[in-house]
């Protein structure tokens, strides 16, 4: 295990986001099952923490950007700063949706269409953000999630307001489409990983990477499909399962997401105005952590007793060579010397002798 590689590829932003979402899911399921007597404002506390980090990081980055104009000439600084502003705008719209959702769950004084209106607006904006992110090779996970779920947000809002009387299986059709497309991608990754495992000429690291990707994608999509099926049955009144049991498959997805945060693309280096990776900044602030970050270790592989004795016992045949082998080596060396001498005499005869001084005689 190489801690240096883990710190180099670690994305603290994604780790924080999925940790907060995991805690929020657990609190919300307990609140819906009436096992937790908290207000919805307290249940949404992990999401408030997530948005507080985003707003604070963007605020500090803007101050550093304004006070240091020469930083704008450093490589990809301008592109990363624009990506930060786009991400900040999306998070603010999501924060507005969360505020309206918590207030509506507490008081019920808003229509669900107005509650989902920030998500509908940001889904339209996210389409342009996805195009910009692909053009500049930026991470577009949040923007892609918002853009592909535009119809799903509209259908859920209309269903909760009573404008449509469809069953929840039909309301969740956009989610089924996204999940089916993900299943096709998962099957492709599994087949590709199986083919690479059967090809001996492929590098071992590449085969390991493809196998890990196939396992990770399977752990992401399969629990999500189980969650959607059980949730639709619960909302239709056909199931008596508790919400706590319904969200259980999602914890597998969350754990996979937390593990993938250690091997994903680096976060935007302009958050909090650091202009470097978060882990590099922490190692610079706390030099004592560098001693642990440079450690790499491997678990010992146990060997059989017979193999260990064979390695420890000396081999007399290998230490004392035979006399015949020595005589054979001597004769080979003598024969090679004779051949070299003969070749040297032959080359000397073939060479033309050129005098060092040539006298020119006049006519």
Automatic annotation (TrEMBL):
InterPro entries: TM_Fragile-X-F-assoc (IPR019396). The gene is LOC108664517. Keywords: Membrane, Transmembrane, Transmembrane helix. Residues 336-346 have a biased composition (Basic residues). Pfam families: Tmemb_185A. Residues 304-363 are annotated as: Disordered. This is Transmembrane protein 185A. It comes from the Eukaryota. The chain crosses the membrane at residues 47-66, 78-100, 112-132, 144-166, 172-197, 209-231, 243-262.
């Amino acid at each position: 295990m190489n801690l240096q590689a883990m710190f180099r590829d670690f994305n603290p932003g994604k780790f924080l986001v999925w940790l907060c979402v995991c805690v929020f899911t657990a609190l919300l399921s307990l609140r819906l099952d009436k096992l937790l007597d908290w207000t919805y404002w307290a249940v949404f506390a992990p999401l408030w923490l997530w948005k507080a980090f985003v707003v604070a990081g963007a605020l500090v980055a803007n101050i550093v950007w304004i006070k240091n104009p020469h930083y704008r000439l450093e490589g990809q600084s301008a592109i990363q700063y624009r990506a930060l502003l786009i991400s900040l705008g999306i998070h603010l719209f999501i924060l507005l949706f969360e505020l309206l959702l918590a207030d509506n769950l507490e008081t019920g004084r808003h229509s669900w269409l107005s509650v989902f209106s920030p998500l509908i607006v940001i889904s339209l904006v996210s389409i342009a953000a996805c195009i910009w992110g692909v053009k500049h090779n930026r991470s577009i996970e949040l923007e892609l999630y918002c853009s592909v779920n535009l119809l799903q947000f509209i259908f859920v809002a209309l269903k909760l307001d009573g404008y449509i009387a469809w069953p929840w299986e039909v309301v969740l059709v956009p989610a089924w489409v996204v999940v089916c497309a993900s299943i096709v991608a998962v099957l492709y990754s599994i087949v590709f990983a199986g083919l690479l495992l059967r090809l001996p000429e492929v590098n071992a690291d590449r085969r390991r990477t493809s196998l890990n990707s196939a396992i990770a994608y399977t752990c992401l999509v399969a629990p999500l499909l189980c969650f959607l099926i059980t949730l639709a049955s619960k909302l239709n009144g056909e199931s008596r399962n508790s919400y706590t049991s319904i969200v259980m498959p999602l914890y597998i997805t969350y754990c996979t997401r937390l593990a993938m945060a250690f091997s994903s693309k680096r976060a935007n280096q302009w958050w909090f105005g650091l202009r470097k990776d978060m882990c590099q900044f922490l190692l610079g602030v706390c030099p004592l952590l560098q001693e642990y970050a440079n450690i790499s270790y491997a678990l010992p592989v146990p060997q059989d007793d017979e193999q260990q004795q064979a390695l420890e016992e000396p081999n007399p045949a290998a230490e004392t060579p035979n006399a015949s082998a020595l005589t054979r080596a001597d004769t080979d060396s003598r024969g090679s010397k004779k051949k070299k001498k003969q070749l040297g005499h032959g080359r000397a005869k073939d060479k033309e002798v050129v005098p060092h001084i040539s006298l020119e005689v006049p006519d």
